[in-house]
Amino acid sequence: MMNVPPPKIPFYHHALPEHVAGLYFHPPYITLAHLFHAPQHWNIARRMLNNYQFQYVVEGAAEYRIEDRTYITRRGDLIYHSPSQAHEVHTIPGEKYICISILFDFGETNYPVERMLGEERYLGNFAGHDIEKKLTQLITHYHQPGLAHHTQCQGLLMSILADLSGIKQEQETKTEGQQKIKTKMVLIRNYIANRFNENIQHSELEAMSGLSRNYIIIKFRHAFGITPFEYLTRVRIERAKELAIQTNMSIGEIANAVGYADVHTFGRMFKSKMGTSFSQFCSSIVT
Q1: What is the pTM of this model?
Q2: CA-CA distance, 233 to 236, in Å (whole number)?
Q3: Does residue 194 form part of some domain?
Q4: Which SMART domains match (predicted)?
């Protein structure tokens, strides 16, 4: 009886950066994840990719065109597009543009990304949101060598997709009364964001919203996943990141500018909240 060799199973080759190649054993495959500081007059001509792409605005603004839709994206805005979707990016005269860009796919797996995120390419504004934190952690881990860091990248990406899917479902089922409360929570969030370097008190938030302290804490956490004063800490840290990108200020000067008199307290807080040290964050910036 002849020995018949088993049929060959086609191997799906996935191109990865040289320092990552061979480390990803299962999807999602992340082929790019970086913080990009665009030079003046930078643009991307109309093109199509074989990947999904997240584009998150860290600072400034840019015009993003996907198929026949144009989006003016600003601080905190997150958009995405699918494989083979025509898109282009144009910086805006007089505006800086700093973004987090992540390219990923699932190989030959038919993963339902569009069903999770929807057909609308603008996903929302996530300034100070937990999704922003996860995006920052993802790019930090991506630039670290070793399987553990790359596995964390995959986990963070799947967590971001799950968060976005949950937000989409919540928006679809929200009642009118819930929407009014959410609007007040957004007003509180904006109030904090605009006064991040002040000594904000709960009484101020109560006065502007007409809601009690405990109710504000409960509803704010429900809306954004954190309390108002946890959000205040996050805004201060995000402002510190902006200063690191845009200025030559020392760490001590940045800490003081965002409300921390002690640079060591600032350093501990940054690592606790962002999962990476301030110096590691600075080293991940690509220009």
Answers
A1: 0.60
A2: 5
A3: yes
A4: HTH_ARAC (SM00342)
Pairing of strands 122-125, 97-105: unpaired
User: 132: exposed, middle or buried (C-beta count within 10 Å: 0-12, 13-18, 19+)?
Assistant: buried
Structure tokens at 132: 């922003």
Could you report the per-residue pLDDT of 54-94, keeping only the tens digit for each? 999 999 999 999 998 999 999 999 999 999 999 999 999 88
Question: Are residue 143 and residue 186 in the same domain, yes or no?
Answer: no
> Does 21 map to a domain?
no
Beta strand pairing call for 97-105 and 77-81: unpaired
Provide the β-strand partners of residue 105: 29
Say if residue 158 is in the same domain as residue 178.
no
Amino acid type, 116 = M
Q: Tally the domains of the chain.
A: 2
Q: Which of 137, 172, 207 is the last residue of a domain?
A: 172
